[in-house]
Design goal:
162 residues; alpha/beta; 2 domains; 21% helix; binds fe (ii) ion; VOC_core; Glyas_Fos-R_dOase_dom; VOC family protein; Glyas_Bleomycin-R_OHBP_Dase
């Protein structure tokens, strides 16, 4: 077992962006912009040698700024195939919202955009119900247009640090 040792000197870091791979960049940028209420800040179609070696076939990347972070939405050329399912990846991304009532609003917005028929969803499962645990922490799970899972949570002050 690894013993946990306090670091000699704490280093600082904060979330900067979340990278999302998509087969349809226009669909993805449109949904992220409208669902998260964000703006498309910039688009790249030329990449460094390092980026091209890490993400073979990358052709376009758009940054959408929303929900207190940046989403780097990118797509690859048609001949690129998705990674094998046994490649380790993050399972979901969780965003905190300031009140339990806002979870209902995010859920309703997802349903409204889905019902509009303007987006193509890889996985058309509806959002979950809003679940509340014993500490009064509420959570909602939903999928983006690519089938990536997002959690939205509200953690009341009395449950912080539990
Ligand atoms: Fe979670």
């Amino acid at each position: 077992m690894n013993a946990v040792r306090p670091p000699a000197e704490p280093l600082r870091a904060a979330l900067h962006h979340v990278a999302v791979e998509t087969a349809d960049l226009d669909n993805c940028v449109a949904w992220y912009t409208e669902f998260f209420g964000g703006t498309a800040a910039w688009t790249l179609d030329e990449f460094s040698d390092l980026t091209r070696s890490r993400l073979p076939g990358i052709v376009r990347l758009t940054e959408v700024v929303a929900a207190g972070t940046r989403f780097h939405l990118f797509t690859r050329s048609d001949d690129y195939t998705l990674p094998q399912p046994d490649v380790p990846q993050f399972q979901h991304l969780c965003l905190a919202v300031p009140s339990a009532a806002e979870l209902e609003q995010w859920r309703a917005r997802w349903q409204r955009l889905f019902a509009s028929g303007r987006f193509v969803f890889a996985r058309p499962d509806p959002p979950t119900e809003i679940v509340v645990d014993d500490d009064k922490v509420s959570s909602l799970y939903l999928y983006d247009v690519n089938g990536l899972e997002f959690e939205f949570t509200h953690v009341p002050a009395e449950a912080e640090g539990r």
